[in-house]
């Protein structure tokens, strides 16, 4: 019997003025992107930066404590995985210099080991400007990018869950940073599930590397939409080393506390 259970954290759909909002990456392209005369400086540079101050990936035989699996499943046939990534997202430009309504930036997240690929997904971050009238709800309804080869990748779709998600914030202040939790856990039958494949990849590894590449961005102004490609520029890369039951990268938790905390739920003040 095959089984796979996943508990996906941080995939809440919310949209409220003045607060951060997590949006799914399922978009229907109901309109063709339109490009009118837009000032060059409007789209010539990215607005956001992303770094990873903490991440932990682990595996376990059987199920992880608290995980719900069918009662008729023999737990000795299961393996589990769990991970946490902290994304530190900062708006770096003075948006008052840009005559735009909103900006959405897209990123590819790749997790690899010294043996090969482990996991991948995508992330987006965006904001409207200066109390503008741009509607993220209209954006959700009118611009869906769930199609192959958008930004030269087919990763922006709901097939890649867990890592794949995003955050938008209205009137994001220059220099303001969000610390965002991205995580997932899952259990699967040994040899017959995606979780089992992930567990095998993690257990065969000596080191893990998380790489974040900027894919491109979309700038909205009035009735115009400008798509800019960034050629998958790598903007962040960290290496995780073996620690405890898994792999750890840490630049925020005091080293003397690591042995006494739950590494999948560290004492970090997240914004979600």
Quick take:
The protein has 272 residues and is mainly β.
Mean pLDDT: 75
Number of helices: 3
Estimate the strand proportion.
Answer: 35-45%
The portion of residues assigned to helices is under 10%
Outline the biggest β-sheet.
Answer: 11 strands, mixed
Shape: elongated
* Rg on CA atoms, Å: 20 Å
Would you report the number of β strands? Answer: 11
How many domains? The number is 1
The side-by-side strand order for the widest beta sheet comes to 1-8-4-3-11-10-9-5-6-7-2
**Spatial gap, N to C terminus:** 37 Å
Mind sketching the topology for me?
Layout: E1 4-8, E2 20-22, H1 40-43, E3 48-61, E4 78-91, E5 102-113, E6 116-128, H2 136-142, E7 165-169, E8 177-189, H3 194-204, E9 207-221, E10 224-243, E11 246-250
Parallel strand pairs: 6-7
Antiparallel strand pairs: 1-8, 2-7, 3-4, 3-11, 4-8, 5-6, 5-9, 9-10, 10-11
Descriptive labels:
eleven-stranded mixed sheet; mainly beta; single chain; 11 strands; disordered N terminus; 272 residues; 3 helices
How would you characterize the overall build of this protein?
The two termini are 37 Å apart. The chain is built from three helices and eleven strands, in the order ββαββββαββαβββ. It has one domain (4-260). It has an eleven-stranded mixed beta sheet, covered by helices on one side. 8% of the residues lie in helices and 44% in strands. Residues 1-38 and 157-162 have low confidence and may be disordered. It has helices at 40-43, 136-142, 194-204; strands at residues 4-8, 20-22, 48-61, 78-91, 102-113, 116-128, 165-169, 177-189, 207-221, 224-243, 246-250.
